[in-house]
Amino acid sequence: MFGKPKQHNDNQFGETRSVRKLRAKLDESHQLHQLTGDPQLNAVQVDRFRTSVTRCMWTFLAAGLGFTTTGVHDFLAGHLAPADPMWWGAWLVEPALAGILITLLRWEAEMISRGISATHQTVTRLKRVLLGATLVTNVWSSVRPPSGPINHGMVFLHLVIPLVVYLIAEVMPIIQQRCTAARNQALNAAPTLVADQPRPDVPEPKSAVSAPIRLRLPAPMIEALRVKRDQVDALGRELTAQDVQDAVKVAPDYAARIVRELATT
């Protein structure tokens, strides 16, 4: 009639529900830490951040050049009527200058992203001439307007906005250079640590090598490298960077570093 009370599931294995939840969170934290420490992931995050910042800078640069276009037009054709062809042609001057500047900035960004210095006196002079012409024409058209009195607010804007555009053009290569350096650092400057040694009570996999890998790599990548090196040893040849890239998805220079580490160990 009266049976034994059922044993609660929380105590069936000596752990409460709270302990199991915390253990699951701990395992998840270990996995997330392992993934977020991957150099390839860090490099991708830096590239995405660089792309986001660059797009914002291009947007504001284009907005500033759009404003300065009106100043250049007033300087060249503010006294003309729309019936005059020169009134329409004057609208093309600033877009042409801006097009040259944008092309130059794109070239600088591409060279810097590939680790090539884009700093040259001629390049700096060209940028200064382009932006200096925009500054002079904008200030002149606001100080001597084609009609009406001088608007001090417009004078201020036509002075400040070309200067801001010039500084944006100078800052964008610096942003590219710093982000490229951060990406390379994430790929090539990972701290060297010896991989976890096998526990004495747990047999090591047959594919494992006797020497540890002194790189901070996720466990699946380490195991894949061990398997690949066993395969290469069975063929009677040395491990190459291409073998490493076939086993794990890493950059060529990082693969070469892995080969050097394995060779020394």
TrEMBL record:
Q: Which organism is it from?
A: Umezawaea endophytica
Q: Which segments cross the bilayer?
A: 58-80, 86-105, 126-143, 155-175
Q: What is this protein called?
A: DUF2637 domain-containing protein
Keywords (A to Z) from UniProt: Membrane, Transmembrane, Transmembrane helix
